Amino acid sequence: MNIEKLKAAVKGAVIPVFDPSFKASTEALLWNGRKQSAQPQLIVKASCIPDVIATVRFAAEAGLRVSPRGGGHNFSGIAQQDGIVLDLGALNRIWIDRSARIAEVGPAATNADLASALEAQGLAFPVGHCASVPMSGYLLGGGFGWNSGSWGYGFSNVESIDVVLADGVLRRVSETEHAEIFWAARGAGPEFFGVVVGYRLRLKPLPRAITTVVRVYPLTAVKGVVAWMKAAMDVVPNFVEFTAAMQSAPGSDGSAKVLLAIATVFADDPAEASAIHGRIAALAPEGAFDVQPEMPTPIGVLYEIIGQFFPVGHRYAVDSAWSADGAEDYVAGLAEGIAAAPSAQSFALATVLSPSRPTPPDAAFSMFGPVWGCVYTIWEKPEDDAENLAWLRRTTDGVASSVLGHYVGEADLERPERRNACHAPAALEKLRAMQKRYDPQGIFLRAVPAATPAKGAQAA
């Protein structure tokens, strides 16, 4: 392996395993404090698209796998394999054509950066719910983001994608150019057989009255709250996002649990937003501990609120699912798990989507439903890994009968069956066939990495 040849070919940094900065660079690859056991042989910090092309061609010659990394904000460590980690962090360009309502963005442009740049132009996009997640993993996984009930999933608003495949050739793919690759890049997640280096996005007008009302209920009221959420979503516009958050009561040590019913309206007029909140309130069940008044929540504020639930440096595991029939039982199962969570920081979400939400186009993103739920397991000490992972899997296995499939962006990908269930069977079969055709050497084959076990802990 001629590393000097690669160094001469790229403008960015090439960090081999014997480099003094290698250990620190590897530690910084993943946002999750729970690191993975797989160790790369090289880290390439691309400074431009030609660096990406050179790295892919080098990997093909050397027989190494390539793990593209946008921001390392994944829970399973799928961006850290045992070959070359291709760090795309410098490819974070955002260019906006306001009149055409088009943006061109790099893979490392984050949700927060894009939302802020668009807000300044009076525009919007269904960016993801977590501010620091970049477009790379978010849109490759499909993009279940803000106001998806009205705007559609993120991938539904992608006009074209620039990709570098295993042959080291840069292609722009769309519905009319390399349509099959375009199909795959919209939702394949870790099954994708290339590196995305740019997106061209269709934008939306920015709603001028984004407001939120929060009602706090005892966790035991979960079935009644979910029934109310479903009834409310039947009578309000599809630009309402309604989520139940099941968590420890604020200020408690985890012994007290509550359910927050969070209704966010993406309206264009304050009076309209207030009227919609009134319709939701008219159906609300009795027994709320607290009702917070309607408050303005532009996307930047929503990010500030959500960011409080994801402390940097903590250890994370996650699983998510789509549900349909029996949604009350599904969410009640999540609530039952939260009541027994070993960590007070762990929480679960359940979002009821509008029945009039847009139908997504045909793409690799092929698993979805009217109710989405997610369990976030958060803890601090390595010695607690096994207990928290076991709890997560007991909780999610306990609701399996109500599950249609999983969302690849927040699925427990350390379990192979989860990864397979992130796509409809026919879509997964098509993706696997395309992998063999476009990446016969398996350069982009992403094995499911194992987390580094805590000292003395048993595998969950």
Describe this structure in words.
The structure is a single chain. With 460 residues, the protein is an alpha+beta fold. The chain has helices spanning 3-9, 22-27, 49-62, 111-119, 135-140, 148-151, 179-185, 222-233, 270-282, 299-307, 327-339, 385-398, 416-420, 425-438, and strands at 13-16, 42-45, 66-69, 84-87, 94-97, 102-105, 123-124, 158-165, 170-174, 194-202, 204-205, 209-218, 240-248, 257-267, 290-296, 315-323, 347-352, 371-379, 403-405. It has an eight-stranded antiparallel β-sheet. A five-stranded antiparallel β-sheet has the order 5-6-10-8-9. It has a four-stranded mixed β-sheet with strand order 1-2-4-3. The protein starts with a helix and ends in a 22-residue tail after the last helix. This is FAD-binding oxidoreductase. It comes from Albidovulum sediminis.
Sequence-ordered SSE layout with sheet pairings:
Blueprint: H1 3-9, E1 13-16, H2 22-27, E2 42-45, H3 49-62, E3 66-69, E4 84-87, E5 94-97, E6 102-105, H4 111-119, E7 123-124, H5 135-140, H6 148-151, E8 158-165, E9 170-174, H7 179-185, E10 194-202, E11 204-205, E12 209-218, H8 222-233, E13 240-248, E14 257-267, H9 270-282, E15 290-296, H10 299-307, E16 315-323, H11 327-339, E17 347-352, E18 371-379, H12 385-398, E19 403-405, H13 416-420, H14 425-438
Parallel strand pairs: 2-4, 3-4
Antiparallel strand pairs: 1-2, 5-6, 6-10, 7-11, 8-9, 8-10, 12-14, 12-15, 13-14, 13-17, 16-18, 16-19, 17-18
